[in-house]
Amino acid sequence: MTQTTEAPAAATTKQSPVLSLRGITKRFGAVQALTDIDLDVYEGEVVALVGDNGAGKSTLVKVMAGVHPQDEGTITFDGRTVHIGSPAESRDLGIATVFQDLALCDNLDVVANLFLGHEKTTGGTLDEVGMEKESWELLRQLSAKIPSVRIAVASLSGGQRQTVAIARSLLGDPKVVILDEPTAALGVAQTAEVLNLVERLRDRGHGVILISHNMADVQAVADRVVVLRLGRNNGEFTIADTSYEDIIAAITGATDNAVTKRAASKLTVQVEALEDAPADSAAAAPAAQDEASTEGENR
Amino acid sequence: MTTTPTKEAATASVAADLQDERLLQAHGVGGRFRAELSRIRTGDLGSLPVAVGLVVIWIVFQSLNSNFLSPNNLVNLLLQSAAIGTIAVGIVLVLLLGEIDLSVGSVSGVAAAVLAVGFVNKGWPLGVAILLAVLAGTVIGLFYGVLYTRFGVPSFVITLAGLLGFLGLQLWVLGKDGSINIDFNSWIVRFCQQMFVSPAVSYGIVVVVALVYAGAALQRRRQRSVAGLSAMSLAEIVVRSALLAVVLGVVVWYLNSGEGRDKGRGIGYMVVLFVAIVVVMNLVLRRSRWGRSVYAVGGNEEAARRAGIKVNRVYVTVFALCSTFAAVGGVLAAGRLASANQASGGADTNLNAIAAAVIGGTSLFGGRGSAYSALLGILVIQSISSGLSLLSLDSSVRYMITGAVLLIAVIVDSISRRSRQSAGRA
Fold first, then answer.
1. Residue of B295, B306, B426 with shortest CB distance to A67
2. Is B16 close to A136, i.e. CB distance below 8 A?
3. What single DSSP character describes residue A152?
4. Angstroms from B243 CA to nearest CA on chain A
5. What's the structural domain count of chain B?
6. What span, in angstroms and rounded, lies between the C-alpha atoms of A64 and A21?
7. Which domains are present in chain A?
8. Where in this chain does the record put each ABC transporter domain (chain A) (predicted)?
9. Residue at B30 is within a domain
10. B58-94 pLDDT, tens per residue?
């Protein structure tokens, strides 16, 4: 894992980000949901956006998706400063969002949901045949297991619904795909399928923003982790050289605490000591992680 | 291991949409029948309950009064259905969004008043008067749409205010007289009362409809097989088209078979207009992007918004169309009565239009229904009304029976929804 994630991380330092947020602020009445958030996404990388409940992840997603435009701050897409005032504008720019609550219409069939808002037409009428054909091609590419595309989405299982939602996001060939908790309600095999899907998106050159509570998922596919805490940036890590502990500490805010600072300094000493051994540092890195996590449990 | 090659060989010849092995296959006529039966048993009733209800109502009234199913009575029944049926088409649209319009009666009254005052009192050309009457409805609907989308006031309240407000407008437009008669020889009155499609033209329409249906089905079959999807068999297309032609042909023959005083009466042009509105609205709802967005907004407004559908535009157009259809219905009703008065669009117009849409099978909760429910629903309501007046029972009984039928329709809708959910067909 270490080797694969280093390559894109190194590449990203040269090119400019495809989507870049600076100083994003969003208020809901008396609540300051986001304060001065910065976020960069490069082509062909997976950025994990993590944080506790109420950290502002979903709000930030909604800003990028055009559901709730920001109050202050700038969004740069492909080097141009843009204003994302509506979901349609977001989609037209090339940002596709899969929302946590799926946002599917239960009363419509799979084809209608996949093409919702950008249906194909021939001579003014819906091109049902063309859309059905394309739906099958797309679902097959994602090796999705959906028995019929002409049944209402309401009768699909959670995993099948998630697949439909992700497949829908890919129809316009977007540059950035935002996945809000894509594995939250899924079984083991389906989670693995979604993670494969995320890697396939990265390999196709999409920038992927992955929101997740599941650190195993984040560590499995993300290149970088951006941590939000109480509506503010609270650290940015490259997965390759970050431990599970550091991310958890940033999420919970434990980094501000004297005890953890002391523990962290002890940890770095240990890691340095391990890295001094030149022969098999790759093998040593997970060992250091294990040590860190056991230490976490003791504390 | 041994099964893999055979399975691959099998899927190669099966259409792309039938390859999943979990899909229950329906082969031949028997399979088709069994699939339909299971669909109905799991609560996906479609228009079956209302069709059954209509047959029951007809049998009951026919047994009580043998004139009920006479061509003469059915011709009248259809003419009586057209105006309120047109209003019900608009109600179907707002119900698909999960909204309601309580003011369609008043709006139809305003349209009738504008038509009568403009045409009779002011001497406008008939075409101009009709156009302005219908446009008055459109403007009212746009007003509702803007109020709803700008201020987020529930449509129930907006249109309740409209019910009162536009009743006032109707009375104000009509002025002191309160009742204006429209010339019996004017086109609108003849259109609504005396103009019937000649038998030859009626049969011609039946043939054209069946041919268009067959042509569309053949084209769809060709497109689907080119795209590698399952398609209707040729035999099925032929049978369906022939069945459509025969059923419509029998209806036309029966309605034209009136004797004596009714000779020469058949299907009124007003009825043709109403049915055409229903068919066109059904096509628009099923086959256009706008129609798809109406169902999407009715099913999950937030999902529709996030998919990039301009939700506010959908609301405004639907409210505008609903009031426009209400105005068209008002014009037709005025033509049929040959007058506009203070009672135009009053009494039970509102409730009959809403009841027709619901009885016809359009869900009150949005996202489920079809334009045909306006046609079926109004036939049920007018059948009850016509049957009871043949039995010389007064309107007290009519109201009670219509109310009971509406209640049954809503209960059937709720039960079938529950059954759909448990059977995974929601």
1. B306
2. yes
3. B
4. 25
5. 1
6. 9
7. 19-102+173-256 (3.40.50.300)
8. 19-255
9. no
10. 999 999 988 888 888 899 899 999 999 999 999 999 9
Check CB contact under 8 Å for B308 and A118: yes
pLDDT, tens digit, for every residue of B299-340?
999 889 878 889 999 999 999 999 999 999 999 999 998 888
- Please state, as a whole number, how many other Cβ atoms lie within 10 Å of the Cβ of residue A80: 8
CB contact under 8 A, B289 and A112: no
A124: Cβ contacts below 8 Å, ≥ 6 apart = B288
Q: Which residue has the tokens 């979604």?
A: A194
The answer to whether the Cβ–Cβ distance between B17 and A148 falls below 8 Å is yes
Output the six-digit token pair for A110. 């799979």
CA distance A209 to A223: 10
Cβ pair B296:A105 closer than 8 A: yes
Enter the ipTM. 0.81
Residue B156 falls within a domain, yes or no? yes
B38, part of any domain:
no
Q: Number of A:B CB contacts under 8 A? A: 109
Contacts of B300 in chain A (CB under 8 A): 103-107
Q: Provide the pLDDT confidence category of residue A8 given band limits of 50, 70 and 90.
A: very low
pLDDT value of position A281? 44
Residue A57 has φ and ψ, to the nearest 5°, of: -60, -50
Residue B67 covered by a domain: yes
| Separation of alpha carbons A123 and A121, rounded Å | 6
By mean pLDDT, which of A227-236, B60-69, B99-108, B212-221 is the weakest? A227-236
